[in-house]
Amino acid sequence: MSYSVGQVADFAGVTVRTLHHYDEIGLLVPGERSHAGHRRYGDDDLDRLQQVLFYRELGFPLDEVAALLDDPETDPRDHLRRQHELLTARIHKLQEMAAAVETAMEAKKMGINLTPEEKFEVFGDHDPDQYAEEVEQRWGDTDAYRESQRKAAAYTKDDWKRINDEFNAVHARVAELLDRGVSADSEEAMDAAEDHRRFITANHYTCPHEMHTCLGEMYVADERFTAFYEAIRPGLAVYLRDAILANAARNG
After folding, report:
1. How confident is the model at residue 103 (pLDDT cuts 50, 70, 90)?
2. SS3 assignment, position 39
3. Residue 247 in contact with residue 197, Cβ under 8 Å?
4. What is the H or E stretch that residue 187 is in?
5. What does the alpha-carbon distance between residue 189 and residue 123 come to, in Å, rounded to a whole number?
6. 3-state secondary structure at position 41
7. Residue 32 pairs with which residues in a beta bridge?
8. Cβ contacts of residue 4 below 8 Å, gap of 6+?
9. Is the pTM value of this prediction over 0.70?
10. What is the CA 208 to chain-centroid distance, rounded?
11. Is the confidence at residue 114, as pLDDT, over 60?
């Protein structure tokens, strides 16, 4: 059975002009001609075309493809093995590139303009993009979210290190008050809660007291936040929430 040049072009996803060119340079000469002189391609021709397209996809110039395919010392199975190895290597490289692009896309989504190495240096095993999609879905249409994005996009690695250090210091202060048995509605605890609110406003988004109380409730209601604070000091999530509520009440 043989096929016309138009049929082969459809099969292979190439243009008729490309097949004419391959014929003209001797790379793929159809094995038959119709009575009218039209090109007709058989199964062997289609096999060769597949080999040509594999090598072309791998970046080989046409003259090298012709030399490889016309080498009498090379078994057709050798071509397949070589192409499989080259394609596997290319797939691996493309997967690495895709992962890098995906990381960059997520970083842009969160506004964190750091390389993967810098993100690891700053955040360690914690992935700052882990809940990016959820955050965008829940708060993407708010002014706070947009403000946070703008600020985050401008931060450098050193800025993020400073922010992490400051936030850790705020948490350490609250944990120390809890360790000492200081009441959550004491002046000290409320002052620490106020520093927590001001930190958020200074580094992420404007956080009025009403919004701060919502955050405090979320620290207790959302098990992910609770686990974060409990890892710092058992009981810290509830203690910080209570101090935030007391501070908000103090400020009307």
Report:
1. low
2. strand
3. yes
4. helix 187-203
5. 27
6. strand
7. 40
8. 38, 39, 40, 41
9. no
10. 32
11. no
